[in-house]
Each structure stands twice: as C-alpha cells, then as structure tokens.
C-alpha cells in the first residue's frame, strides 16, 4: 500500500499522540475527559459517541520550540511531506519572549477534512538574546542534531515522490518521533541550565535538551465549558478561566483551557561528570473548542471587544472575568445570518437538492436571491489557526511568576521568519477567503451561471 501526505499526517499525529500519552499520563486523562464530555453532549442530542464527526475524533494540535534556522528549515521539509505548510505569523515578543513562529497545517478543504492536524512552531530569536549568553546558546545548539542521518536521507528521497510505501512510512514516522520525544537528561550542566533559565525560561527549555520535545498536544472538544468543570472535578490542575471568546450561540475562532505545566525531574551534569537531579517545567495539557473563521472585520471587532474586557477587568478573578467578557461580546452579532450579512465570518456555500430540480434563474444573480430561493445553503468555515493573544496567555500562565518579564521593545519580523523558513508564510485570513471563494465558484459552475453577485 502506498501512502499520500494526508495518510502520513494521520499516521504521524496518531503516533505522536500515543507517544505523548505514554510520556504524560495526564494527557491520557484529558483525552478520556474529552471522550466523556463529547459522549454526554451527543447523548443529549440523541446521538452516540461514534457519531462524533471524524474531524473531532482525530483532531489535535501540538506545539514545539526550535533553536535555530537550520532546525526550522528541516522541520518545514518534514511537515511538507505530511501536507502541512506555514500559515500565520505569531510574534511572541509581545509578551516578552524572544520567539516568533508560525503554524504548520493543511491548506485545502479536502486535506483539512481528512485531518487538520497542526503544529504551532516557534523559533528562538538569537538577535534578542543578551550578548553574554548568545555565544553559549549558539554553541550548544550548533552541536545538536534533531534530525537523524536516516531521517534526512528519507526526507530527501520522499521529496522526489508523491506517495510512500507503507514500510518506508513506518520508518519515517519512527525517525520523526525522535525529534518530539521528551528526554529527562539535559545536555548541559546544572550551572549552564541556571544561566540560560535566568536569561529566559524559554531559552533553557529550547537549548538544554537533545530534542525539540512536544510541549503539549491539544484535543478538540464539543463543549469546553463542560471539560473545564470536569477537569476541576477530577482534580486536574486546571487554569481558572477559558481563553478566547466567551460562550456563544455561534462559536467563533477558538476557546482553550489548560492544566498547568508539570514540574519534571531532569538529570544534569554537575560539571565534573557526575549526574545530579534537578527539575524543569515545560509540558502542559490543553484542550480546545473550535468555532468559525472570522474575516478581517470580524478579527478587528474581536480584538477590540477582548481588549475592552481586559481593560475593564484588570485584576479580577477568572469567574468575574468570564462575566465581563460575556458582556463585552454582546456587541458581536450571534446569529449566522447576521454574521454573514455583516461580513464578520467566512462561509462555505453549497448547492442544495432543490437546485437540482432545475429552477431557472438569470445568468447573473445575487447570492441573496439564490439563498432566498433555497438553491444555495451555507455553513461557517472552521477556524484552523491559533489566537495570538491566547498563545501569549498560555505561554505566560505556564511560566513561574518571576519570569513575567517586561515587554521587549522590537517590531514584529515576519520577513525575517520567512527568510529563515526559505518560503512564504500564508496569511490565514487569505486562506479562509479563498475557501469561501472556491465554494462560490463551485456553486456558480454547478448552477451553470455566468456570475453570482453581491458577495461580502
Ligand atoms: C505554544 C503555545 C501556543 C496555542 O494553543 O495557542 C499554542 C508554546 O507554548 O510553545 O499552542
Ligand atoms: Ni496550544
């Protein structure tokens, strides 16, 4: 059997999930909570867990932090084999972290339907490190090899073919997992670790280990509020508030919650060849519920209402914040029709069964008319990316208090990240606009029309 990029992505995300479950038992518990909650949600609708949409059954995102441009280029090539490409720019300097990144994910409607697995990938910005530490970091990372020679060979070969024999795919996945695996032994001495950590905990997390360990793997749920309650009930160290928009009739973007990073035992060299025990805090658990992709206008409104809530609720507890957020978002329309007419959300349009009966319409007809006549229907497009503010919030809440550093004053640097990647980063909103346009073009062609007018 030969595998294509979609099959490889599914195999890879499943293998990664299995590995992470063995490494972090709480992740297994989280998956169980999601299954229980989704089962209860479906039961209330008279359905069963097996009726969970395929996407929800296998959907996850992961996150890794890389050290060098070289590592970033290599990961780009590996993810491309899994049909995952860089979308969106995330500037973590906004919260004082010397990192920026992108999300590797599938692009086409078909590939997303098969499996939308994505990896939030950041890379260390050496230009933002203090000069006194930069040389040490560069030297440590120069000696690190995340990609085994066998893996590099397989990537180069696979780039020339469009499918891969099953046996080779197993090898590729086996070798790839090594990049994401956790190691409880640091590559540096206890002293070096402490120095890098005092520069920034992220610097230590990136530079002191032999792999780019996956730091969380996030399942998607049908009801994040229930998951949050259930995490608390089962005694998981859950955060006290859900990030992203408030609960709504028409969910938008995504909502996430997490349990705090684990303190893990790590062995260090004491500088004289003896192993000494220490700890490191990096990996955490997260869960998310996805909503609709917003347009630029929708994103602006979201940002505006969120920052309004943040300003109004400085220093209030999680529960009170939920209330303030909910009130602030009353200004964000909450029916699909208003969201559509207001140009706030992207939709996928489809020709209905009625259209196949052959109703005649003019060659140039407005979208509204087609909808009124029941010839076309629509469904919101799922948001496939990350929340810049949410990402920042999650980074922050998983760091020890003293590391909440002041804002680094520097401009975002998408061109620099594109140069490091050696390719363009797609703008996420352009991707959704294209999905909507493609769906309308399919409707136009199926209905045999010249033009559909009046599209938002
Ligand atoms: C990535 C955090 C971003 C999300 O869901 O917003 C992220 C990290 O901690 O490396 O995964
Ligand atoms: Ni995440």
From TrEMBL:
SMART domains: DUF1338 (SM01150)
Keywords on record: Dioxygenase, Iron, Oxidoreductase
EC number(s) recorded for this UniProt protein: 1.13.11.93
Keyword match Repeat: no
InterPro entries recorded: HGLS (IPR009770), YdcJ_bac-like (IPR047869)
CDD domains in UniProt: VOC_YdcJ_like
Claim: Ubl conjugation is one of the keywords in the record: no
Cofactor(s) essential for the protein: Fe(2+)
Similarity comment text for this entry: Belongs to the 2-oxoadipate dioxygenase/decarboxylase family.
Protein name from the UniProt record: 2-oxoadipate dioxygenase/decarboxylase
Classification of source organism: Eukaryota, Fungi, Dikarya, Ascomycota, Pezizomycotina
């Amino acid at each position: 059997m030969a595998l294509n990029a979609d099959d490889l992505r599914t195999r890879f995300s499943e293998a990664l999930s299995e590995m992470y479950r063995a490494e972090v038992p709480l992740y297994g518990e989280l998956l169980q909570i999601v299954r229980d909650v989704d089962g209860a949600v479906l039961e209330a609708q008279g359905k069963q867990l097996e009726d969970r949409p395929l996407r929800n059954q296998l959907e996850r995102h992961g996150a890794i932090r890389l050290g060098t441009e070289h590592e970033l280029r290599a990961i780009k090539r590996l993810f491309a084999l899994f049909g995952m490409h860089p979308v969106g720019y995330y500037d973590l300097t906004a919260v004082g972290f010397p990192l920026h990144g992108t999300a590797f994910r599938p692009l086409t409607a078909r590939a997303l339907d098969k499996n939308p697995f994505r990896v939030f990938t950041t890379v260390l910005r050496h230009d933002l490190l203090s000069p006194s530490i930069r040389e040490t970091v560069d030297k440590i990372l120069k000696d690190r090899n995340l990609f085994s020679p066998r893996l590099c060979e397989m990537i180069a070969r696979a780039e020339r073919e469009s499918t891969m024999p099953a046996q080779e795919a197993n090898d590729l996945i086996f070798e790839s997992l090594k990049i994401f695996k956790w190691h409880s032994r640091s590559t540096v001495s206890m002293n070096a670790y402490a120095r890098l950590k005092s520069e920034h905990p992220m610097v230590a997390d990136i530079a002191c280990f032999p792999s780019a360990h996956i730091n969380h793997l996030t399942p998607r749920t049908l009801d994040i509020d229930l998951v949050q309650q259930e995490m608390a009930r089962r005694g998981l160290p859950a955060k006290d508030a859900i990030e992203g928009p408030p609960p709504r009739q028409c969910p938008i973007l995504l909502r996430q919650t997490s349990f705090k990073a684990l303190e893990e035992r790590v062995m260090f060299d004491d500088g004289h060849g003896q192993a000494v025990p220490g700890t490191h805090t990096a990996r955490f658990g997260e869960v998310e519920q996805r909503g609709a992709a917003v347009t630029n206008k929708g994103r602006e409104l979201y940002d505006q209402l969120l920052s309004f809530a943040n300003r109004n609720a400085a220093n209030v507890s999680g529960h009170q914040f939920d209330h303030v957020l909910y009130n602030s978002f009353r200004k964000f329309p909450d029916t699909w029709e208003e969201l559509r007419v207001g140009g706030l959300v992207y939709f996928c349009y489809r020709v209905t069964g009625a259209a196949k009966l052959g109703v005649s319409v003019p060659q140039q007809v407005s979208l509204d008319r087609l909808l009124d006549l029941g010839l076309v229907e629509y469904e919101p497009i799922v948001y496939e990316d990350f929340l810049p503010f949410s990402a920042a919030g999650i980074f922050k809440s998983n760091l020890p208090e003293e590391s909440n550093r002041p804002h680094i004053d520097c401009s975002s640097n998408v061109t620099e990240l594109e140069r490091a990647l050696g390719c363009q980063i797609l703008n996420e909103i352009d991707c959704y606009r294209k999905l909507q346009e493609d769906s309308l073009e399919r409707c136009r062609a199926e209905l045999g029309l010249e033009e559909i007018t009046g599209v938002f």
